[in-house]
């Protein structure tokens, strides 16, 4: 099942299928290691949904909701 990273709930994980967005946002996500094929696990979500904390490539990363909605994910079964 495909969904964007901002739609994940804590404890859910998946694999990045694609990264969209404008130049600066897409470049920033790639620089942080969010590339197609990378495994990401949702760790925490703030009460209002922004920001979110994820684990990618064995490190913790905090993303804004506007950044997370640019990451299309395949949910792990």
Give a verbal description of the structure:
The chain has two helices and six strands, in the order E-E-H-E-E-E-H-E. It has 77 residues and is an alpha+beta fold. Strands 1-6-2-3-4-5 form a six-stranded antiparallel β-sheet. A hairpin with a 2-residue loop joins strand 4 and strand 5 (59-63). The longest helix is centred in the middle third of the chain and has 9 residues, at 23-31. The chain is globular and about 30 Å long.
Topology (elements, then pairings):
Elements: E1 2-4, E2 13-19, H1 23-31, E3 39-45, E4 52-56, E5 59-63, H2 65-68, E6 71-75
Antiparallel strand pairs: 1-6, 2-3, 2-6, 3-4, 4-5
Short description:
By secondary structure, this protein is of the alpha+beta class. The chain is 17% helix and 42% strand. The longest helix has 9 residues, at 23-31.
């Amino acid at each position: 099942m495909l969904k964007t990273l901002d739609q994940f709930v804590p404890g859910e994980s998946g694999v990045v299928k694609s990264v969209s967005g404008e130049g600066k946002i897409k470049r920033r996500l790639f620089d942080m290691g969010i590339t197609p094929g990378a495994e990401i696990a949702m760790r925490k979500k703030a009460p209002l949904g922004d920001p979110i904390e994820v684990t990618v490539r064995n490190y913790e990363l905090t993303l804004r909701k506007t950044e997370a909605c640019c990451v299309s994910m395949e949910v792990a079964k």
